[in-house]
Amino acid sequence: MKRVAIITLGLLLAAGMVFGGGRAETARIDIGIAMPETHVERWQRDGQSLLEDAIAAGYRAEVAYGDADQGRQNQQIQDFITKGARVLIIGNLNEGVNSVVREAAEEGIIVIAYDRLITGSDQYDYYITFDNFRVGQFQGMAIEEALNLRAASSSSPKIITLFAGSPTDNNSFFFFDGAMSVLRPHVERGALRIVGPAPLRSSDSAFTRVATEGWRAENAKARMENLLTNDARDVVLDAVLAPNDTLARAIIEALEADAKYVNRLPVVTGQDGETASIQAIRDGRQYMTVFKDTRSLAQGAIQLADALLKGETPNIAGARRDTESYDTGMKVVTSFLLEPINVTSDNYRAVMIDSGYISESDLR
Questions:
Q1: 190 and 86, same structural domain?
Q2: In a domain, 362, yes or no
Q3: Is 0.85 topped by the overall pTM?
Q4: Which of 19, 229, 303, 360 is 20 to 30 A from 205 in CA distance terms?
């Protein structure tokens, strides 16, 4: 069965059933898995992988998807609490989750923030993710290399426009700052010119103008279309910093509708290793993506949950323990960081297909 079919089956079953021992039942659960949405492909994969790994470890588990609605996700988490969950693995949408995180803490339930830091809370202790600053660095280095920025000069600068992720997702700041740590020196010496809003750090006020609310593709496409008829009308873009694959493809759609880019697209970055973007990389439409193998992230999250439930010191294979970097605004949480992988047309087959993450038949 194709992976997409497996994911779809998992979503249907997860809507109202609990899994354990290979059968569906309405019994209490051990682990509640709350994923933020399904409109970004990777969250479907994450939810399914977490569910499968929890079951394989002998736990009763359930997964729910919040449909990009924090209120809905809170209701799902409360349902997990009612069902007796001992661990909650939460990929949240925004700080609106804090009320149910507090409720879980009061019930003595372990909360693990999954790939998105839960900010504004001191009611949990663990976070597992990838090295998200490194993700951004990969994106910046891809642009630097593709445009040969080290050899560029202020007399003939390369031209770029910037996009960032959702301002409610703490990871967006790490992605952006990682990318700009590479690109900023070229901007400051005039070899790289930014068209449109030009924040050099996520702390700059202009960051909100390049952020993409809710990671919504339609928002990125509309903003790119607006740029093409306004700030970028009289220039030819050499690159677009796009924070993930869903937004990258939306940006590319807007670019391809502009006559200037019919035969030559700018360098467009991405992240997540989504199947449609791997196809676009193969076909030369998207320049690169950063692959975060969510199979490893899910496995690490369940290993973390298992250790905590057994009262053991967590030790996640392939992850770096960080006790300094991730501050919720109220406390620094212990974090486990996995390494991402840079993917281009040169290595997409080895990284994505040979590893079994996708199959050749998935690429149209």
A1: no
A2: no
A3: no
A4: 229
Determine, yes or no, domain membership for 298: yes
Q: What range does the domain containing 190 cover?
A: 132-291
Q: What is the pLDDT of residues 41-91, one digit of tens each?
A: 889 999 999 999 999 999 999 999 999 999 999 999 999 999 999 999 999
Helix axes 245-256, 275-282, angle to 10 degrees: 50
If pLDDT is split at 50, 70 and 90, which confidence band does 3 have?
A: very low
Which pLDDT does position 10 carry in this prediction? Answer: 47
Within a domain: residue 354?
Answer: no
Domain count, the chain: 2
Whether 211 and 322 share a structural domain: no
Does 215 reside within a domain? yes
pLDDT tens figures, 316-335: 988 999 999 999 999 999 99
pLDDT, position 26: 52
Please name the amino acid found at residue 189: R
pLDDT in tens, 266-299: 999 999 999 999 999 999 999 999 999 999 999 9
Are residues 111 and 186 located together in one domain of the fold? no
Asked whether residue 138 falls in the same domain as residue 268, the answer is yes
Where residue 73 sits, what CATH number does that domain have? 3.40.50.2300
